[in-house]
Amino acid sequence: MNIPTLACELPDAVQEELVEQLFPMPDLPQACISLEASLARRLAEAKARLDRLEHQVDSRDLSALATARVEFALASRAMADELIARGLHALDKGD
Fold first, then answer.
1. 24 in a domain, yes or no?
2. Does residue 16 belong to any structural domain of this protein?
3. What are the pLDDT digits (tens) for 6-21?
4. Residues 6+ apart with CB under 8 A from 23
5. Number of domains within the chain
6. Is residue 78 situated within a structural domain?
């Protein structure tokens, strides 16, 4: 399989701007800044798998779909438990 590649060179001035460009820290509660990577990865993988299985209408495996839904629910619950343990549920909503 031939996959075309594309390469381009940026002028030196642009490369320096990209490397030195600083972005402001998002306005996130401290509880969200250092989330457990394994929980975030588990949730993202479960969502991606569920989306993929839900879009397979021609060869839908209902057992795999049900399993993916359960895993997504469990991953969501684990992430929510972590956020609650960090006190995110008690923060002011700012309304």
1. no
2. no
3. 555 655 555 445 555 5
4. none
5. 1
6. yes
The residue to which tokens 């049900």 are assigned: 66
Q: Is 1 exposed, middle or buried (0-12, 13-18, 19+ CB in 10 A)?
A: exposed
Side-chain-side CA neighbours of residue 38 (13 Å): 2
**Cα 29 versus chain centre, distance:** 17
Residue 13 located in a structural domain: no
Q: How far apart are CA 53 and CA 77, in angstroms?
A: 21
Alpha-carbon gap, residue 47 to 88, rounded angstroms: 22
Helix axes 62-85, 37-54, angle to 10 degrees: 150
CB < 8 Å & 24+ apart, contacts of 61-70: none
Residues 41-69: tens digit of each pLDDT: 999 999 999 999 998 888 788 999 999 99
Q: Where in the sequence is the domain holding 54, given as residue range(s)?
A: 29-89
CB 42 within 8 A of CB 78: yes
Q: Find the radius of gyration of the CA atoms of the chain.
A: 21
